[in-house]
Structure formats: structure tokens, C-alpha cells
Amino acid sequence: MSIDIQKIISTHEKTINGKKVLFVPKSHSDKLLVLLSAHNQKNNYFLLRTFLENQTDNLLFLTDTNNTWYLDNDKGKTYAEIISSYSNNFPEGNTCIFGSSMAGYAAIHFALKNNLHCLACNPQVSIELSLDYGWHELNKNMLRTINNGGAVNLQELAEQQSNHTGVIFIIHGHAPIDIANVELILEATPNHRKLITHTIDSDDHAMPFGRDIEKVNAALDLIFAFHKFNLPIGATQSNIKILKDNRHHNNRHGIKRYYKNWKGSDQQSFAWNRRHFLQNPGIYFCRDIGLYNSSGEKTGTPFIFDGSELWQLKSAMPCDKIHDFSADEVPYGPVSNNQAIGNAWFRAPDGECLLHSDGGGHFTAKFITGKNCYFNISLNHFLDSGFKNGHEISCMIDVEVERGSITLSLGAHGISGYYQANKIIESSGRHTLVFHADTVNNKHRDALFARIYFLSDGKSKSIKINSIAFAHGNLPTVEIFESTKND
């Protein structure tokens, strides 16, 4: 079916409270599907042509050009009011919001706020928690949103909105950012909730439906059918009613029940990705960071919390677990492709780039035609010191960068080939990166490696590598890495 997209936009697009809104009605339908564009989509409406060519319901398209998780500067109030102005024209229970990732966060947010249904793919639930798992561009926008004071923790909102009668359908894969966030929403225990979770066997954060509208419609049918299902609660004994009243009171006032106290009742232990949720000052024990001991387990690290920031109380591991590498060994002069320096080597293909060492860890990189120019450091020595599949490797680099950026990578060669974690470095200073090695091919020359990509942004530059250090463990911040090194 051929449709004139521009004509539809010119006919139906409006600007409401500074936001572009596209509402496309469908005759004989009493349902509304709200479609939210994902991160970095600018003014592009979410799968516009695909949904219009297969339209079965009324469609409302919204975008967030500023990448604020649809929170804007008012914690989402403007967007929520726009959605309500349309959903109020349809029968109760007939509106569903659909979004993925950033838009999945907004779909859950507005569904809870406006008592609507939502279909959310790989959503963020806590923007603060997601910072530990996001990539460069996503993290920049998440941090800006947090600093603007607009972040809303959807786990907490789910418990506050105890009268929500809509259906929340979450589809997620196994990317760390998705697993960590879905765990939060599963831990919420509001008085009433209809929640569907579908875990797919994928490690991709991308929206899983692609352009398969039939699958989307099948998911919507499941949502609307589940909405009609109700299990009435009969009369209860007085002592049970007291327990219920107590639970309702606690939920209204944000009081955590004992079995939900993830910090632990004795040691006040916590997981690193939950540090943002600490509220009370005191001494806490982070159980999942630090270096590995002789049994192959992380011993954790104690912290003092002052109510606003965390800092390390003392190191949990001996410094002999840290391995430093000096770029001072690279001699003065042009660097050739596959030039070896100890346990490191360079990739600088002729005709693609020029790389020159000025000695003392100082390099000049000139972009010509290609981007595949990097410094590779073998970390295979960790394989002889208790490293196991599933362990983590950490890196801290002190670097000076003039113009553009470099990319720091930690990676491995596993059962299916190369995979790695990357961090774009745009400013001089000390930076850390943690890599989780699921599988490692011990016989490969790149079983474990670190790389510094000089020209990944296509810009010539000067780079001064002051120091690089590696650790067999999870040392996620400069402060933690430094205190462990210098203990």
C-alpha cells in the first residue's frame, strides 16, 4: 500500500506546548497506540512508514529531540499531559505506549503516571544505574539528564503507583544494561500489578521487533487480553487485613520491607550498580568489586558513605595484583606495522596512517585514509595467575589527548572470535575501563588484550601516554584503582 508520508505529516502534525505531535486517526478503531522515538532519532517518528502502511489503530507519534528520556525540564509533565489529552478520548484500558531503550523508559514512566498500558523493549529503569553499562553517547545524555535533576527511578515510581491497573509488557535480552534494569522493575512490589516479562535469547540492545508489525500487534493483543483478566480477592480474616493495611502504608511512604533490604541487615553490603540508591550515612561493604583472591572470588571493598558521595575506606587487595605497562619503551621514530615492543605491538598499515613516536610515551598520529591504527598490549600473563572464564579485567590509563578522541579497549578472543569493551576518551586525565571476559581462548595470541585506537574518530592528533595499569578484578573508578595500587 502506497502512502504519501509528507501529506500525512502536513495534514496531521501539530505543535503542542513546544512539542511536535503527529496524531493519525483510524476510523472504526477505539484503541490508541502511542509511539515514542528512541535515543538520537531527532525529529524522526518511530517506524512511521511501517506503522502507517499497516495501520489498524489510532496512532500518536512523539519524539524527544533533546534526548532527555522524555523528562525534559519538568520530569516529563509536558509529555504526560500531551498523552493524556489524546488517551482521554478513548475508553479506559484502550491506550498502549510503545518504546525501546530510552523510549522504553518513557513508555513505562507515562504508563505508570497516566494509568495506561505499555510495551517496552530493553528499557532503562534507573538512569543512574544505567550509567555503569551505557556507551559513550548514551552516557553523555544520561549524565546531562541526571544533572538537570529530572531523573525518575521507575522502580520507586512503580511502588508509589499502587493503583495502576494497566499492563506493563517488558521484552528484554541479555545485554548487561538490560538485565540490570529489568531486575529493578521485578524487585518492585506494588499493591497491584500486571507485569509480563519476555526474555529473549539475544545479547543485542536493539529493538527486537524490527519492522514486524504482526508481532507488535500480537504483543498488543496479549496486553489487552491480560487487562481483562482479573482475580477477585474475597473477604479476609482481620489479622490478614492488618498485614495488608500495614503493607499499603509502607508502600505509600516508601518504607522497605525487610526481605527487600538489598543492603543486608548485618554487613550493610551492596552491589556496585546499586550504589546510587544508598541513602543513610554509614560504613558499607561493596561485595562485587575489588581484585580476585586465590579462590577466584572478589573479596569486595569497604566504603564510607556520607549521604552524598562514596569513597573507599581501604584497599581490599595487595598491590602485586596490579600490572603496569610503560610506553617509554617505544623508541623515537616512525612506528611500523606489527612493530613489537615487549608484550605489545602496533597496527599502523602503510598508506592508511602515519604514527610517530617521540619517545617517553608521546605519539603523533596522522590520519590519511583508514582508521585501523592502534597500540595492542597483550594481557595473557593474567592467564597464568588464576584467571578464569567469567572474570573481569580492569585498566587505568593516564593520557593526554590533543584534538579529537582516542578509544580505549579491553577484549578477548573467545569461542566465537573477538569481543571487547570500549571507552571513548575525549579529555586528558586518568580514565578506567572494566571488561567482563565470558570466554577466553587461552591458545590465541590475543587471548586477553588492551588496545588504544589512535584514529578511531578520523582526526590527526598528539597523544601522550603517561601510564597504563591493568588489574585482574573489577576496579571501576580512578579512586578505587589508585587506592588499591598504592595500598
UniProtKB/TrEMBL annotation:
Organism (species): Chitinilyticum piscinae
Origin: domain of life: Bacteria
Protein name: Uncharacterized protein
InterPro entries for the chain: AB_hydrolase_fold (IPR029058)
